[in-house]
Amino acid sequence: MSSELPEHPKGALRSGNIADELARGPRHLHVVVVSPAQPIFEGDVRWVTVPAWDGQLGIWPGHAAIVAALGSGLLRIGQDAGKVARFAVRGGFLQVGEDKVTILVDSAVAEADVDTAEARRELDETVAALRHPKTDEEFAELLDRRAWSESRLKLGGP
Amino acid sequence: MPEQPKVIRRRIRSVSSTKKITRTMEMVATAKLRAAQQRVQSSGPYLENLRKLMAEIGASGVDVSRWPHFSVRPGKRTLLFLVTANRGLCGAFNTNLVRLARDTYRAKEADGHQLRLFVAGKKGISALRYQGFELERTYVAELSDRPTPQDGEFFLGELIGPFLANEVDEVLVVYPHWESIGRQPPTVLRLFPIAPEGVARTSGVPPLFEPSAEEILDRLLPLYGRQLIYSVLAEAVASEQVARRIAMKLATDNASDMVTRLTRDYNRARQAVITKEIAEILGGAEALKE
């Protein structure tokens, strides 16, 4: 495979770079997703995006070691052959190190298990409550609930 | 004079129906055990990973003494939380737990500790009350057959409150620790203060913390406590079902033995009656002949 590559302007590609990686085939991440009550997912995948506390965070193989707090949103796992597994997740942590990704979530719903009607109802309730939050904590909690409902609705499709 | 066959027959019937009951209870326990064991096994990975995260944070040089959860205080006030079952008929399960709780209590007391007792489970409550202990809080309905992480959260609130309010210096939990399906020894677990885990880092480079190690620890601690108690509850339920299954299996086997023995006695007694009757008839016939 490396023979198909164009010559590097600075000479031959050194070891441990793209040429070797292409020869080896794609690198994988070993991903484990667990919730307090059950394991959710485990497998070797191409990439992962997680809802970090302040926005989406994408992880490809070779990512630096990181520990991050998660918010509510969509967890997407890119598998081989372009397959993408999607989960709505809420709260927890992400830990990445040496191509191992551990995702601890408070709750998770797989694409097939979304109850859009319930999510819609919860969203309406939360939005109504958001008009008159009493304390800052309640406000934060309501925002989180809203994000959780919205991510489930998004997962459930239109 | 052997017993009347009729009396023996009645006993056989009563033992057989007891056997049916114990057999059913054994099967119910087996079914419940499967679900309970599943719960124990699936709560493990989450706790394990929380521990790893905590070690990672501890190794990154965060000063954990800022969190009261880790603070080792010199005081001698102990909260003892005992987890037993709400139901009996499970062999020595509850007795063993109560015994360990009592021994721990006495040992701590002799060491000059002041103790407060929280007990979950009807059996533990009545056993300790009977032995003259004063129970500060008791939980019966709160102890579920199918514990959830929410139950863990409830008990965490009960136990962490006194610790964070500086009313006690340590929180101990007595519960059956699930090692395998064959072994669930009653165990004392120190819930608080959490031992700051001085685990050596595996990789050389410290990880990035997003937003920060402190903030992550803030979020992690409640989840850790909750999951730890959730797994205690899950292990207690699973161990109870194991103990009940064994006890009920023994009872069923004993009942089978008893039925075998009684059947033999019954046949013997029946034979004796027949023999006696024949002897009487023969005796009567002989008497008539003369």
CATH-defined topology of the largest domain in chain B: Pyruvate Kinase, Chain: A, domain 1
The CATH class assignment of the largest domain in chain B is Alpha Beta
Taken in chain order, the helices and strands of chain A follow as: HEEEEEEEHH
Number of domains of chain A: 2
Oligomer: heterodimer
**Overall pLDDT score of chain A:** 83
**Which structural class do the helices and strands of chain A define?**
alpha+beta
CATH fold-level topology of the largest domain in chain A? ATP Synthase, domain 1
> Which radius of gyration of chain A do the C-alpha atoms yield?
20 Å
**Helices and strands of chain B: which structural class?**
alpha/beta
Regions with little confidence, pLDDT below 50 for 5+ residues of chain A: none
Question: Which descriptor suits the 3D outline of chain B?
Answer: elongated
Instruction: Report Rg of chain B.
Output: 29 Å
Termini separation of chain B: 31 Å
Number of separate domains of chain B: 2
Mean pLDDT of chain B: 91
Task: Count interface residues per chain for the largest interface.
Answer: A-B, 27 and 31 residues
Q: Strand tally of chain A, please? A: 7
Mass-distribution shape of chain A? elongated
Order of adjacent strands in the largest pleated sheet of chain B = 3-2-1-4-5
Order of strands across the main sheet of chain A: 2-1-7-6-5-3-4
